[in-house]
Amino acid sequence: MECPHCKISHEDKVFKENLMVCPECGYHLRITPQDRIEYLTDKGSFEEINQNLKSDNPIKMEGYEEKLSAAKEKTNLSEAVITGKCRIADYPLMLGIMSFDFMGGSMGSVVGEKISRMMLMAAKEKIPVIIYATSGGARMQEGIYSLMQMAKTSSAAAHLNEQGIPYFVMLCDPTTGGVTASFAMLGDLICAEPGALIGFAGPRVIEGTIKQKLPEGFQRAEFQQQKGFVDCIVPRKEQRDFWIKMFKLHNVKKVKEEK
Fold first, then answer.
1. CB neighbour list of residue 120: distance below 8 Å, 6 or more residues apart
2. Closest residue by Cα to residue 79 from 62, 55, 63
3. 3-class DSSP state of 127
């Protein structure tokens, strides 16, 4: 496999053992939700919720069902987000992980519903929420129904805040559009993976609109941290220990696995 950044090739197993981070230049490649669950959570602790929710075709968009079927077959996922309850070092939490490989991580009505339900469940059980966001934005095949998810997820995030439940976000490459404009920027702590593209409109759209050349690294995680849109940048190998530290700082109580 060749690193898309430094163009140096390594065996596939080298990338996998390194959590899909280039050992040469540190570039963070995209990673599947299943692999994230494996490196983040306590073994066997992840219990998926709302996995039976299925997308409909509310505005009868031609070809939408075929695109959904192709995405399911490609990713082995039912939708662009997996949500569930799990533990990290015996700290309980609700975890949502988006997949850019599923129709660009676009947020349709099912994605918004799954994220909102997860947040409300976390508020009820009084456990923190972590979301790994990566998306091209709202799902155009669902029209206004997809745009409504911005309000729905934002309302659920506000409920977490009202209840004093910690809500953390990790922005991954890329996080754009309606996801950035809603729940992805509403966390108590907004983190990012190194080099992640973060914004609303993409750089090419902005350059075409303002007719100016954008600065080097524009909208990358490091740029957004300098501008105050991102609180911290956390390399993939450090994320599990980072979340443990955050749970301790927020006085999250551990639970022991039942025997």
1. 156, 159
2. 55
3. coil
- Quick: pLDDT tens for 224-236: 999 999 999 999 9
Q: How far is CA 32 from CA 20, 46, 196, 212, 224, in A?
A: 10, 15, 16, 35, 24
Q: How far apart are CA 16 and CA 29, in angstroms?
A: 10
* Both structure tokens of 157: 């995030």
What pLDDT, in 10s, does the model give residues 144-194? 999 999 999 999 999 999 999 999 999 999 999 999 999 999 999 999 999
Give me the torsion for CA of 150, 174, 224, 111, rounded to 10°.
Answer: 20
Q: pTM for the whole thing?
A: 0.95
Of 66, 77, 138, nearest in space to 102 by CA? 77
Each residue's pLDDT tens digit, 116-129: 999 999 999 999 99
Is residue 33 reached through a cis peptide bond, with omega within 30 degrees of 0 on the bond before it?
Answer: no
Check if the beta carbon of residue 205 is closer than 8 Å to that of residue 223: no
